[in-house]
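chain below, 150 aa
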Amino acid sequence: MPVQKFRAPFSLRCGAILIDYILLVSIVAFSTLMARPLGGGARTAGNSTETFGLVIAVVVAVLNFGILPGLRGRTAGKWATGLRIERVDGRDIGVGRAVVRHFVGYPLSFLTLGIGFLVAAINARGRTLHDLVADTVVVREEIVEPRVRR
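prediction:
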């Protein structure tokens, strides 16, 4: 079936990143909750549980924001919302570009007090500052049913 690509709606992009960060925060929250009962008398057990949770969250962040988009073009949130990250010319972004996009571009978008994200509203292709930095675009793919002539 042929696939047609459309500009990703800003609301879906917000939903995708929300899903991604809920995933990370839930890991940290779970490790913190697990550390409470363990930290009663032996504070070191609680601290190591929280540290382990933070390490797991960092590993998941690198996998979700660097490796997965580099290999598949999607984070967990983008997969859940049906979005895909690709280069402007339609090719896969690769791990290096995915790392630059998220770990360099996102902080730049935040440092501009969020204006880097709002650039998508005035950009014809819906590209944000981190998309411009990494030369990427976020698209929504839809399967197009062929028309039957009668």
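The chain has six helices and three strands. Residues 83 and 140 are 5 Å apart (CA to CA).
thats it, cya
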